[in-house]
TrEMBL record, chain A:
Region annotation (Disordered) ranges: 27-58
Protein source organism: Reyranella soli
Compositionally biased residues, Basic and acidic residues: 37-46
This protein's name: Membrane protein
The keyword Transmembrane is annotated on this UniProt entry: yes
Domain of life: Bacteria
UniProt entry keywords in alphabetical sequence: Membrane, Transmembrane, Transmembrane helix
Residue spans crossing the bilayer: 86-106
UniProtKB/TrEMBL annotation, chain B:
GO biological processes: DNA-templated transcription initiation
Official protein name in the record: RNA polymerase sigma factor
Parts forming coiled coils: none
GO terms for MF: DNA binding; sigma factor activity
Length: 261, 168
């Protein structure tokens, strides 16, 4: 029996360690342990470790809740910010870029060897920007969603292209703001979204060479990116998600880019 | 949606414990819990009714932690353990020694194994709930749990030998 493989009954053994078996299941495991001293030693050690961990950490859970973590106090602190944001948040969602006409090849199966340098560069820039700002708690965005009109006007001006924010609420992501970044030879814009568990998604746009419209998928650690270039601008959507989760979002964004009518 | 205070507050001690076990720093742990609570309140109205509140809060905390941990690794910073947390080590205090070993050993596990041991072994999450918090299939939870405990044993055994040698 290899110790690296999960032997039959391993799930039951783990449940036994966690004291989650009763009656016949428990008796069956105990009979198994009685037959194998080696297994018994292992399981006893695992139970002992579990108990040690619990007892060492118990004091922490017995501490009174500090004032700054009381919900009422956090709510009071939030209230000012909320009043300022109210109403504006509702207007937070729109589209993104106008004037995109060329078609897109949703060709994410395309082998990476065929990827052109500009798309790679866009994806890499987007991933780097994602990693830098998505972990920010204090200042995830430069301009918050409360000033969305100002944000989009400002980013549009610096990009040299009209920029609006796609509505990703069907996917559970809400716009929280954006920022301006250095990108390539000019400026790049990053719009940031967040879902209800705090996962963040970014949309990254900057001027790019090439007219290519091929759709590129890149996975860097657990950050996934779909990137494409269209009419002189590169676009990338990045999130901690699987390709399957991200693809419909990328498609929705692309549809948002397509001129209506 | 109901007033969040009475629903969330009973869960704060467990959130603080989980955060402390992840970070081993009291202030940083409470910062993490505070960020978690602020986020939870921000999204309170959009929270799905069918969701388990406890699993949701732990998932927020864990997502925040994982993002920052990754950032910390990229910066090359190391989160130290609180020296004052370590019990006095004297020969013969086997139980204290082992307790110390387990906490220190858990710190050496990858975050995903560490979180799982804490959620299941300390916070008494069901395997299904833990799968939800960690966003992995239940089968992954079971195999990861088995792996985590094996690895913990080998770390504790290794530490124990080292410590006993040092004490002698």
């Amino acid at each position: 029996m290899s110790s690296d493989n999960v032997a039959p009954g391993e799930d039951e053994l783990q449940a036994y360690v966690d004291e989650r078996l009763d009656g016949p299941q428990r008796a069956a495991v105990e009979a198994q342990l009685a037959r194998s001293p080696e297994l018994r030693d292992r399981i006893q050690a695992e139970r002992r470790h579990r108990a040690s961990l619990r007892s060492q950490l118990q004091d922490k859970a017995d501490e009174p809740i500090p004032a700054r973590l009381r919900i009422a106090n956090i709510q009071t602190a939030r209230r000012t910010r909320l009043t300022r944001r109210a109403g504006l948040a509702a207007a937070a969602l729109a589209i993104f870029v106008v004037g995109v006409g060329a078609g897109w090849l949703a060709n994410e199966q395309r082998p990476s060897i065929a990827m052109s340098a500009p798309t790679t560069s866009i994806a890499q820039g987007a991933t780097a920007a994602y990693r830098t700002f998505v972990v920010e708690v204090a200042h995830p965005v430069e301009v918050g969603v409360a000033q969305e009109a100002h944000l989009l006007q400002w980013l549009s001006k610096r990009l040299g292209r009209k920029l609006e924010a796609p509505d990703l609420t069907p996917f559970g992501y809400r716009l929280i703001g954006g920022r301006l970044l250095p990108g390539g030879s000019g400026a790049a814009a990053q719009l940031m979204y967040e879902d209800s568990t705090g996962r963040r998604l970014t949309l990254y746009v900057r001027a790019a060479d090439g007219t290519e419209t091929a759709f590129r998928f890149q996975k860097d650690g657990d950050a996934a990116t779909f990137a494409w270039i269209d009419q002189g601008f590169g676009f990338a959507v990045t999130a901690m998600a699987s390709r399957e989760e991200l693809l419909p979002i990328a498609e929705a964004i692309y549809k948002g880019l397509t001129p209506k009518g | 949606m109901a007033d969040p205070g009475p629903l969330i507050e009973p869960l704060i001690p467990a959130l603080r414990r989980y955060a402390y076990a992840l970070l081993r720093d009291h202030t940083a742990a409470d910062d993490l819990v505070q960020d978690t609570l602020e986020r939870a309140l921000l999204h309170w109205s959009s929270r799905r009714n069918d969701g388990d509140l406890r699993a949701w809060l732990f998932a927020i905390l864990r997502n925040l932690h994982v993002s920052r941990h990754r950032q910390a690794l990229r910066r090359g910073t190391v989160v130290g353990i609180d020296e004052e947390e370590l019990p006095e080590i004297t020969a013969g205090q086997d139980i204290v020694l082992e307790t110390r070993d387990v906490l220190a050993a858990v710190d050496q596990l990858p975050e995903e194994q560490k979180s799982l041991l804490l959620l299941v072994g300390v916070e008494d999450f069901s395997y299904e709930e833990a799968a939800k918090v960690l966003d992995v299939p239940i089968g992954t939870v079971m195999s990861r749990l088995s792996r985590a405990r094996r690895r913990l044993r080998s770390i504790v055994d290794g530490d124990r030998v080292t410590l006993l040698r040092r004490v002698k």
